[in-house]
Amino acid sequence: xxxxxVRTLILDxxxxxxxxxxxxxxxxxxxxxxxSLGTRTFDLExxxxxxxxxxxWEQAVQRVPEGNRxxxxxxxxxxxxxxVFPRLRGAIDADRKRTGRFLxxxxxxxxxxxxxxxxxxxxxxxxxxxxxxxxxxPQVSLDDLWLRGGFPxxxxxxxxxxxxxxxxxxxxxxxxxxxxxGLPAKPQVTERLLRMLAAVHGxxxxxxxxxxxxxxxxxxxxxxxxxxxxxxxxRRLQPYFANLGKRLIKSxxxxxxxxxxxxxxxxxxxxxxxxxxxxxxxxxxGFVIEQSLGLLSAQGESFEAxxxxxxxxxxxxxxxxxRGEIWAVEIKLTSSPGPEDFxxxxxxxxxxxxxxxxxxxxxxxxxxxxGKLSCSLGHLLKVLGER
Length: 387
Description:
This protein is α/β, with parallel strands linked by helices.
């Protein structure tokens, strides 16, 4: 089993809270990771496991692990059985000082978070598991991870499964999971929307344009996007607002969170095909952003992420607010960035008072000095990993 970076964070939270909710996309490795942490697992999508949990409930919740061992009850796909949440609340409230008792897993955020907010507020911690990060699979080249994405069975562990696995994964989501989770669109409409989102990956979101193409309203297409974001398919990167004396773009940018799913939808199978596509720069940009934010999230860091774009063409791909400091990160798909690239980043970063100014490219060696850093993605991840 791969050593998932978030494992340490989960254990820390289990030591501090009665329960932890581990959320993330289907097939990202939640169940495998949870089974390494708890010996009693119940898949609440299965009627047999619901019955088993019902019969064993009193014995299970009263059992105390020996010594200081952490051995939570694992409840997989918890949002599929709402009746379990009041029982969890009762068990936790009966002994609030006991920690590490329950580990809940969920593949879709809105239904699960609704139950959590109504029944378990203040009683648990929420942790997100992303598809596999570069720091978790050093044996896989960054380019291979970029091409195939981070799903374990979709290319990281089984390269030959790409892109067939991704095609089947998206089909399952559109035809079964998303409708079951409440998405009101027909599967055919969802498939069209996903193709449109692939075409505008890394661009400023224009809901009216997409809505017109789908034949639905502006509000409806934004509701659809809410579901896709809740299913961890899409990230909306919000604009950074500052008093710059310039008109700022106020709509979010939209990115596919997993590059392998993006490339599958865009029918791009090989590295040569990827590099030949006109949108390759946007794909690389999204991959760098997801790797960076995924690492910070796995470390349990509190941060805010934005982009900046002014109406007269000044832009920062990623604005990070971390530990009270602003990072301005520009992302280029080149192995030889020029002085003009950093000069432009410097000017934009000065507008928002960024202390750290980072130019990410394909350079083999990092260059650093007085708050400025020109480096590769791998080097940036090492810097962000320094606690």
